[in-house]
Amino acid sequence: MIGTIATHQLVALRRQRVFAALLASFVLVSALAGLLGWSSNHTISRVYDEAAKLMVATGQPPPPNPFLLKPALSLLSNMVVYVPLIGALFAVVLGHLSVVEDEASGLGRLLFSRHITRTQYAMGKVTSAAVALVIALGASMGVSALSLLVVNHALAVSDVARLGLFYALSWLYLMSFVLIGIIAVLVTHRRSLALLSAMGAWLVLTFVVPQFTSGLRPTQSLNPIIEPIGTSQRFFQITAHGQPFSVVEQYKATAAVILNTAPAEATGQLALRLLPVAALAAILLLITLKLVQRHDFSRSASNE
Amino acid sequence: MAAPAIQLHALSHRYDTDPVLRDIDLTIEHGEIFGFLGHNGAGKTTAINILTTLIAPTSGSAQVCGHDVVRQRGEVTACIGYLPAEVRMYGHLTAAENLAFFATLSGVPHPRRAAAETLAYLECADLANLRVSTFSSGMRQRIGIAQAIVHRPQVLFLDEPTTGLDPFGVRQLRETILQLNADLGMTVFMNTHLLGEVSKVCTTIGVLNHGELIYKDSIEETTRRFPDEASLEDIYVRMGSDSA
């Protein structure tokens, strides 16, 4: 029954323009991340080549090309920013679309007059969104791998494995936002209010919480910095201890470790940093299951 | 002896502190077309919500085809079909896909074939491959009925089925209900406001007033009992004023 509901939902999602547009934009930003990586590589390498030629002409030994010293996956460092921004928005809308039609069009009443349990329904919806996310991230991974191949002319097996791990982490992170999209529909009952409140949750998790933990420097939200920032102000000293609960920062730090762009000392903290990301997804899944159990689908027709 | 199609015993329901249904006792036999009448907010839809297992009653019991709606939910859902008021199907899917989905949920062995057969039975096979979002109210209502009968239930629940239909659609719906009752022997439980339709379709009526069942009898007996009233509408109005 879970498979039936999931398959049905995937077919419905595939035909929705909003979903297609968001999927396309997410794949596009993946290509953009690769393009930006290639562009900076290309520009700096050209400057390096000119400088190296001059140095050789003057009898000085040229230093190695800085790009050759950087890990191959550092070209995709922008993806660590795009996933919490565009990817999470995509996930919120995906979760919203998964259940909103049942709620707003009264279809919930039809579904639960059939022989399905609420757990089967919830798991079917979550499974369909999870699969849709795998498809989106799979397409993004394909584009990213292609970008790396174009720039580096080769892709090591270890890099492919790291890329896979990065996208697996992104999937886990984005599942929380899918569940937020579903929960918002179940709690608010209204199509527009549900989307607005889910967006609000996305804003809080992505921008507000990091500001209260370690977002004192604007660059912090773009470049993962491992250690909490020292400050003489007591308020910020206290709030800096909340960094483990700032899921977006934990995601960025974990992604930086996986992509090999984090400081060496951060590598050992991988499991610790992964924990809040996984815990949030698990807690939201439990809340979703509980809400579906308690939800009154007989009143599911409040389409404004 | 087979259990009645629907049996309610001291059925009561309340939303928070507001009583919606009060001590309802009702028996509907197989093959009846039952018209459930009542003003807005009388509790008709709540009764259907309980009988279709969407909500549990606060007290009392309800059985459909001999199965308790709370303790034997699976057995009840297997023998009922339901068309809520103003329901929409999945607009991005075709009529056939919608029907196949609901047939699968009901455990029909060959959902696609069942969908095609049901559309053909309702003489709307031409809608099979069209997306439901492109349908008019009348077409949507026919697909709604198709989903309700795709698994050939014994009891069909219709909640205000004529809402949004033009006179042609209302007539078509009436013929469909009579056809389902005659061909497939379906018991029909219909909430409605349209008393004219009730007198043309139903075999039995029940009148709900502020959550209480104030009347239940056959159409023939009802017209015999109220010889001074010209129509069912007059009888209904008199019942309402008598009970007030």
Describe it for me?
- The complex is a heterodimer of chains A (304) and B (244).
- Chain A has 304 residues and is mainly α.
- Chain A is built from 11 helices and no strands.
- In chain A, helix 4 (79-104) packs antiparallel against helix 8 and helix 7 packs across helix 8.
- Chain A is elongated and about 85 Å long.
- Chain B has one domain (6-243): Rossmann fold.
- Chain B has helices spanning 44-51, 73-79, 95-105, 111-121, 137-149, 167-184, 195-201, 219-225, 232-243; strands spanning 6-15, 18-28, 33-38, 59-64, 67-68, 80-83, 155-159, 187-192, 204-209, 212-218.
- In chain B, the strands form 2 sheets. In chain B, strands 6-7-8-3-9-10 form a 6-stranded mixed sheet, sandwiched between helices.
- The longest helix of chain B has 18 residues, at 167-184.
- The termini of chain B are far apart.
- The chains are: A mainly alpha (304), B alpha/beta (244).
- The interface between A and B is medium-sized, with 23 and 29 residues.
Could you give a short description of this structure?
With 304 residues, chain A is mainly α. Chain A has helices at residues 2-14, 17-57, 66-69, 79-104, 107-111, 118-152, 157-188, 191-213, 234-240, 247-258, 270-294.
Helix content of chain A: over 70%
Percent helix of chain B: 25-40%
What oligomeric state best describes the polypeptide chains here? heterodimer
The CATH topology of chain B comes to Rossmann fold
What value does the average pLDDT of chain B take?
A: 86
What is the count of distinct domains of chain B?
1
Q: Return the structural class of chain A.
A: mainly alpha
Task: Kindly report the spatial arrangement of strands forming the biggest sheet of chain B.
Answer: 6-7-8-3-9-10
Structural class of chain B: alpha/beta
> How many helices of chain B?
9
Largest sheet, strands/sense/barrel of chain A: none
* Number of helices in the DSSP assignment of chain A: 11
Shape of chain A: elongated
Largest interface: which pair? A-B, 23 and 29 residues
Order of helices and strands of chain B: EEEHEEHEHHHEHEHEEHH
Number of strands of chain A: 0
What count of structural domains of chain A? 1
